[in-house]
Design a protein that fits this description.
Layout lengths: L3 E4 L2 E3 L5 E7 L3 H4 L2 E6 L6 E8 L3 E4 L7 E6 L4 E6 L8 E7 L10 E5 L2
Parallel strand pairs: 2-10
Antiparallel strand pairs: 1-3, 3-8, 4-5, 4-9, 5-6, 7-8, 9-10
Length: 115
């Protein structure tokens, strides 16, 4: 079963940066696009953030375009999300999954942006 393990979250001040990592198990990494998603209070709705894949390239939600960069390390089966110029509106639990997502979510990693 494919598993996704997110890491790298933390508390950062507005304008700061963080790099999230997503370790992808199984054979999915080279076969499918991987997406980053986030859940924000108060709705807790899961929002798509970015996608990286050989066939689809890289794509970003409008809210993060120009600030977030997604990249892949094939040797490590890892997808990264470099986040810069963070704002309190980026506070969320961040998840990775296939794109489109499947019903197999990891624990996520908390990102908090605050003074």
């Amino acid at each position: 079963q494919v598993q996704f393990v997110e890491s790298g979250g933390g508390l950062v001040q507005p304008g700061g940066s963080l790099r999230l990592s997503c370790l992808v198990s199984g054979s999915i990494f080279s076969r499918y696009a991987v997406g980053w998603y986030r859940r924000q209070a108060p709705t807790n709705a899961r929002e798509w953030v970015a996608t990286s894949g050989t066939s689809v390239g890289t794509n970003y939600a409008t809210s993060v375009k120009g600030r977030f960069t997604v990249s892949r390390d094939h040797g490590k089966n890892t997808v990264y999300l470099q986040m810069s110029n963070l704002s309190p509106e980026d506070t969320a639990i961040y998840y990775c999954n296939r794109w489109p997502a499947i019903d197999n979510w990891g624990q996520g990693t908390q990102v908090s942006v605050s003074e």
